[in-house]
Design goal:
Elements (H helix, E strand, L loop, with lengths): L10 H12 L16 E4 L2 E5 L12 H14 L7 H5 L2 H14 L3 E5 L2 H8 L10 E5 L4 H8 L4 E5 L4 H10 L6 E6 L11 H11 L2 E5 L14 H4 L8 E5 L9 E5 L1 H10 L1 H4 L6 H16 L2 H20 L10 E7 L1 H13 L2 E2 L2 E2 L9 E6 L6 H17 L4
Parallel strand pairs: 2-11, 4-5, 4-6, 6-7, 7-8
Antiparallel strand pairs: 1-2, 3-9, 8-9, 10-13, 12-13
Length: 398
């Protein structure tokens, strides 16, 4: 029976809702009706998808899907436990070995998500105020949450500013443990960290380095091996966090590094210890996704072909794509209302390209974030470009 009264005063929630609505900051995600692929169905309408992390179009790859089906039939729908007790299956270990092989490292550990990898791992790497965490100002929210769970001192450097990073390292030179954390690919701007310079400074000041490469997996490096491979830094970066839920098309978080790193996280990371292990179908699909990436490099090549073409054409139309150098290509709008208006126009015409507004970005840095996929055809991209050329003047961007 529905109860009209609620225990406690919840009017603050309605006030927050009204404020977000008034400022065009309200998230109202549309409903996807079917697989997440370049041509999909949203809200009952045929749609070109430009807002997915599905960079390599692997969510529907036959080998990945079949691996999930076969493992589910053999092992069941779930694992029945946390991995630390009775939930580690041979499929989990096979997937981790495949990750380590692909990354060129000793070992890997798979978490339930990239988010849980960061919030579970970061607090285990420092002890207290005698230590310091130094973070890029534009790092992902999961990194920020992980840092908040520690008692270490905190330093922040301006985005990708190596002079300021060096200054912060000097300021905290007395710290027992120093941990530099950076995104690999920055998910809102589409640029990536100068990991070679960060690593050089880390070696100079005796600091550890953690890179969150969730948007670099399958994108940067040889065959999509990530930002560490891009800079030829295998064996020099202490902690490499990644994700299966983006270019690899499945779900889950990745920690790659030494065997000691894996053992440490397995024994101390609460988000790993206390989370039910991933369903066997997911573990099998994770391994299959990496195998596809290795065996079918044309997906990676097509992703970059689409990326370079679309960015060049956007710029030729007069759109500002910011500092993007990856398949994340923002169309900078400034005001949240402009980004929302543009998204509305696009959705009416059957294109999903979401508005990114505060608090995901600064209040005056709203943008439409387009994300390329290997599955998009040249015809798809040209159709979107024609629409953008028409919509741009209506919202005052070109």
């Amino acid at each position: 029976m529905y109860c009209e009264t609620m225990p406690g005063d919840m009017t603050w929630m309605k006030q927050r809702f009204d404020e977000l609505h008034e400022k065009s900051l309200l998230w109202e995600p549309p409903t996807l009706e079917g697989p997440n692929q370049p041509r999909c169905t949203m809200e009952g309408k045929p749609t070109i998808m430009l807002s997915a992390n599905n960079y390599l179009n692997l969510t529907t790859h036959p080998k990945v899907v079949q691996a999930m089906v076969d493992a589910t039939k053999k092992y069941g729908a779930g694992s029945g436990s946390v991995r630390a007790i009775a939930g580690t299956m041979d499929l989990h270990l096979e997937a981790e070995r495949k990750v380590a092989e692909f990354k060129g490292v000793e070992a890997a550990l798979i978490y339930s998500a990239g988010y849980t990898a960061n919030v579970g791992l970061i607090p285990t790497l420092v002890q207290g105020p005698q230590d310091v965490i130094i973070s890029d100002e534009l790092n992902h929210g999961s990194i920020i949450d992980g840092v908040r769970l520690t008692k270490a001192r905190r330093g922040v450097y301006a985005h990708n500013d190596m002079e300021e990073l060096e200054a912060v390292l000097k300021e905290h030179d007395d710290a027992e443990r120093k941990l530099i954390i950076t995104d690999g690919v920055f998910s809102m701007d589409g640029d990536f960290a100068p990991l070679d310079e960060i690593n050089k400074l880390a070696e100079e000041f005796g600091a550890m380095v953690l890179v969150d490469d969730c948007h670099g997996e399958g994108v940067l490096g040889e065959g999509g091996r990530g930002i560490v491979d891009h800079f030829n830094l295998q064996g020099h970066v202490d902690f490499e966090v990644g994700s299966f839920s983006k270019a690899l098309g499945v779900q889950g978080g990745i920690l790659a590094g030494t065997e000691m790193t894996r053992t440490h996280a397995l024994n101390h990371s609460r988000s790993w210890l206390l989370s039910g292990s991933q369903p066997p179908g997911v573990a099998a699909a994770q391994k299959a996704a990496i195998e596809v990436l290795i065996e079918e490099p044309e997906h990676h090549a097509k992703l970059w072909e689409n990326t370079n073409y679309f960015r060049k054409e956007l710029q030729s139309l007069g759109f500002d794509t910011g500092v993007s150098t990856t398949p994340i290509i923002p169309i900078m709008c400034g005001e949240s209302s402009t980004a929302k208006a543009m998204t509305t126009h696009l959705q009416r015409e059957g294109v999903m390209a979401g508005a990114i507004v505060f608090p995901m970005v600064a209040r005056d840095k709203a943008r439409i974030r387009t994300q390329m996929s290997a599955g998009l055809s040249r015809e798809d991209l040209d159709e979107v470009l024609r629409l953008l050329e028409s919509i741009g003047p209506k919202v005052g961007l070109i």
